[in-house]
Amino acid sequence: MTATVPAPAARRSPGKRAFSKKAVVPWLFLAPGLLLALVFKFWPMVKGIRLSFFDVRPFLGDQWIGLDNYTRVLTDHRFQDAIGHTLILGIGQAVGAILLGFALALLLEGQARSLRILRTAVFLPAVTATAVVGELWRLMYYPTSDGLLNSGLHLLGLGPVPFLDNPDIALYSTMAMGIWIWAPYNMVIFLAGLAGVDRSLYEAAAMDGVSLWQRLRYVTLPAIRPALMIVLTLATIRGLRVFTEVYVLTGGGPAGSTDVWMTRAYTLGFTRNDIGGASAASVVLLCVTLLLTVMVNHLRKRGGAR
Amino acid sequence: MSAPVIDPVRPAAPDTPAGRSTKAQRTTPARFDTALGWNDGPGLAWALRVLLCLIALAVFAAPFLTIFSGAFTTNPSGSSLSFLPHGSTLSNFTVAGERGIWDYLGNSLVIAGGGLLLQLVVCTLAAYALARHRFRGQALVMMLFMMTLMLPEEVIAIPLSLVLGDVPVVHLDLKGTVWGVILPLGAWGFSVMMLTEFMRDIPTEIEEAARLDGVGELRMLWQIILPLCKPALGVAGVLGFIMIWDQYLLPLIAAKDPTDYTVTVALSILRTDPEVGSGVVLAGAVIALIPSLIVYLLLQRSLVTGIAAGATKG
């Protein structure tokens, strides 16, 4: 697999033409994909890194300013707040969705037809476009007592909660929606892990007379640990680049209390036209994402070797 | 396949080749089928499970009933929602139609259809080269496709919007055209990797026999390899559709003016329109929801298989 030269040297001299033709074939098949990736992924990446070192002035020409954009972005208190919000949202969402997803998987594991239908229904949030979910939750969070969630709270005798209008709880309202979206997705991954657990281990555990908790702790959890690590890291990466949920639900408000890294960069780049600063912010995010992705791949490889 | 795709919907017990065993063949009692050891028979545990299942259903599926019931309810006040429709009306859809929702849906369908077609063709071609050929730089190409997964639209949004306005070398302005959304979705590393893995497991004997018959590369892919890849193409198709339909930032930055928006992006226009109520927004949400719902319900098994495969195999 690692040998990249396919033909032995001896065969190369008689039909050099045929060989080179053969060598061209895979590249023809790869060309469309590589071209699209180059133009719409890698070129923007390079361009973004370049722009992050410039003061971008549309008609006057760009001016090299070194790391000024970075220092400006990283010392901006709104970006500093955004880092905190991104971390709280990303980690809270990841952990919440994993715990809930695991609970759902334990609850809905099984082969009965009714369970299969239930799983199909519960998975709906994960296939619905994020923007649609955002609009739905905006309406469910409606702040007056006749909003859907508030009318439920009203029945319990609790006053209307301004879920998205109160700077203290808007971030957690957003987090709840994120957990709702991603828990079913994690459920499927955990179900796949649970399906791979050797049933005879459960039987053996029962013969040894262990409790249900011990069985979960010592049989089930070790079996799904690889899946768990991957889900956790992927969820963290997803949390870092969270944009649509926040943008649709709160737009970063109220008073910037839900502003995350990407909504901040978007505002800077597209509303304030500070391309250089927004690029610097994107590059910072890119570096963190790359770092985390390398970690995931490391985990995957280790998980695969076991 | 080298590693079996785990289908969480129907876990096959390792000792029973038929997958679902009959009661007579069964070696382990049913209570060892699940991690929590749920029992089928009535009892306290069973009642608890039913209750918890109902709560899960209410939390995750009931909001969708709200979308539908709200969309068919006239509510000028714009805030009351419930799980069941009171009365029924199509007026919300009429108003949403006046606000151009069908045009937005048209944009979405063209982008989803075109984008998915392009994505499947591009990724299949690349996967064929990676799986069935050996060439210099193979590992590097594979790494490049993997890197496309690390460069989601959010991370490169600002420079990407500049590139879309002025594509290097050819100097085309793709903003305001569907190409601005379709082309960046073409090379999706996930599909390339999944299809490559699947194609690698097709026995070489089939290919060698075809080569002896003088089959060329394109016919080999079209007539020999692709028919054998139908399950993997199904997974790539469903996941690709869901991914494209979920796009928000890309259609937003690729648009020249709001008429270029997809239906999911256009919902925010409906919401900020002071003259329409939440019923109209929900009507728009229903319209934006239905295509992905249809795809999901028709092909949910391959979607679930794909997620499980993506998560456990990589």
From TrEMBL, chain A:
<feature type="domain" description="ABC transmembrane type-1">
    <location>
        <begin position="83"/>
        <end position="296"/>
    </location>
</feature>
<keyword id="KW-1003">Cell membrane</keyword>
<dbReference type="GO" id="GO:0055085">
    <property type="term" value="P:transmembrane transport"/>
</dbReference>
<keyword id="KW-0812">Transmembrane</keyword>
<dbReference type="InterPro" id="IPR035906">
    <property type="entry name" value="MetI-like_sf"/>
</dbReference>
<keyword id="KW-1133">Transmembrane helix</keyword>
<dbReference type="GO" id="GO:0005886">
    <property type="term" value="C:plasma membrane"/>
</dbReference>
<keyword id="KW-0472">Membrane</keyword>
<keyword id="KW-0813">Transport</keyword>
<comment type="similarity">
    <text>Belongs to the binding-protein-dependent transport system permease family.</text>
</comment>
<feature type="transmembrane region" description="Helical">
    <location>
        <begin position="218"/>
        <end position="237"/>
    </location>
</feature>
<feature type="transmembrane region" description="Helical">
    <location>
        <begin position="24"/>
        <end position="43"/>
    </location>
</feature>
<feature type="transmembrane region" description="Helical">
    <location>
        <begin position="82"/>
        <end position="108"/>
    </location>
</feature>
<dbReference type="InterPro" id="IPR051393">
    <property type="entry name" value="ABC_transporter_permease"/>
</dbReference>
<dbReference type="Pfam" id="PF00528">
    <property type="entry name" value="BPD_transp_1"/>
</dbReference>
<dbReference type="InterPro" id="IPR000515">
    <property type="entry name" value="MetI-like"/>
</dbReference>
<protein>
    <submittedName>
        <fullName>Sugar ABC transporter permease</fullName>
    </submittedName>
</protein>
<feature type="transmembrane region" description="Helical">
    <location>
        <begin position="275"/>
        <end position="296"/>
    </location>
</feature>
<feature type="transmembrane region" description="Helical">
    <location>
        <begin position="120"/>
        <end position="140"/>
    </location>
</feature>
<feature type="transmembrane region" description="Helical">
    <location>
        <begin position="169"/>
        <end position="197"/>
    </location>
</feature>
Automatic annotation (TrEMBL), chain B:
<feature type="transmembrane region" description="Helical">
    <location>
        <begin position="220"/>
        <end position="245"/>
    </location>
</feature>
<dbReference type="Pfam" id="PF00528">
    <property type="entry name" value="BPD_transp_1"/>
</dbReference>
<dbReference type="GO" id="GO:0055085">
    <property type="term" value="P:transmembrane transport"/>
</dbReference>
<feature type="transmembrane region" description="Helical">
    <location>
        <begin position="176"/>
        <end position="199"/>
    </location>
</feature>
<dbReference type="InterPro" id="IPR000515">
    <property type="entry name" value="MetI-like"/>
</dbReference>
<feature type="region of interest" description="Disordered">
    <location>
        <begin position="1"/>
        <end position="27"/>
    </location>
</feature>
<keyword id="KW-0812">Transmembrane</keyword>
<feature type="transmembrane region" description="Helical">
    <location>
        <begin position="280"/>
        <end position="299"/>
    </location>
</feature>
<keyword id="KW-0813">Transport</keyword>
<feature type="domain" description="ABC transmembrane type-1">
    <location>
        <begin position="105"/>
        <end position="299"/>
    </location>
</feature>
<keyword id="KW-1003">Cell membrane</keyword>
<dbReference type="InterPro" id="IPR035906">
    <property type="entry name" value="MetI-like_sf"/>
</dbReference>
<comment type="similarity">
    <text>Belongs to the binding-protein-dependent transport system permease family.</text>
</comment>
<feature type="transmembrane region" description="Helical">
    <location>
        <begin position="143"/>
        <end position="164"/>
    </location>
</feature>
<dbReference type="GO" id="GO:0005886">
    <property type="term" value="C:plasma membrane"/>
</dbReference>
<protein>
    <submittedName>
        <fullName>Sugar ABC transporter permease</fullName>
    </submittedName>
</protein>
<feature type="transmembrane region" description="Helical">
    <location>
        <begin position="109"/>
        <end position="131"/>
    </location>
</feature>
<keyword id="KW-0472">Membrane</keyword>
<keyword id="KW-1133">Transmembrane helix</keyword>
<feature type="transmembrane region" description="Helical">
    <location>
        <begin position="50"/>
        <end position="72"/>
    </location>
</feature>
